[in-house]
Amino acid sequence: MAHDLQHPSEPDPVLAGFRKSIDNIDAAIIHMLAERFRITQAVGEYKAKVTLPPADPEREARQIARLRKLSEEADLDPEFSEKFLRFIIDEVIRHHERAAAG
Amino acid sequence: MAHDLQHPSEPDPVLAGFRKSIDNIDAAIIHMLAERFRITQAVGEYKAKVTLPPADPEREARQIARLRKLSEEADLDPEFSEKFLRFIIDEVIRHHERAAAG
């Protein structure tokens, strides 16, 4: 089929429609994450300037509780939202370490 | 200070402003992820119905290349975007396994 030659691995229009939606959502998330890291970079610089400690376990606990609640409302696994926040915070810490190293 | 009694761990208005932005972005990402998992669930059901294989390594490779490119444009570490997609795909696989287990 001519169709298969053009798009050998995406011959199914239903599947292609789902994938288009996934790709749009992924692009949105990537841009949100880029903005989030811009802000956490500013937070890191600000905390260094006013000599606040880099980590704030109380703030993290509040963030986790809030995201778990939001996830439940959005029918997303709350465990996953906690894992997700941890994944992002670990990356923020790596950014700060890289910045500190120079 | 009365302010400190009300918000003991967030006495700094500059920091509070940054955190408000981070919280808004996190809420947006959580809702995007909830929608993404709704779609991947539909994809899983559709693939089972039309007997397509659950995994598609070629599609994954295209997704990774695309997100790396988007990340570069958004000044986000491309390595991170690849790790992020892997993190999400692993969760999708867990969802499918749970669904298959009943």
What quaternary form is this? homodimer
Structural class of chain A: mainly alpha
Which two chains touch over the largest interface?
A: A-B, 49 and 49 residues
Runs of chain A with pLDDT <50, length 5+? 1-7
Tell me the CATH architecture of chain A.
Answer: Up-down Bundle
Give the helices and strands, then pairings.
The structure is a homodimer of 102-residue chains.
Chain A: H1 2-6, H2 13-49, H3 57-73, H4 78-101
Would you kindly provide a written description of the structure presented here, covering whatever features stand out?
The structure is a homodimer of 102-residue chains. With 102 residues, chain A is mostly helical. Chain A has a single domain, classed as Up-down Bundle (Chorismate Mutase Domain, subunit A), CATH 1.20.59. Chain A has helices at 2-6, 13-49, 57-73, 78-101. In chain A, helix 3 runs antiparallel to helix 4 (78-101). Chain A starts with a helix and ends with a helix. Chains A and B meet through helix 2, helix 3 and helix 4 of A and helix 2, helix 3 and helix 4 of B.
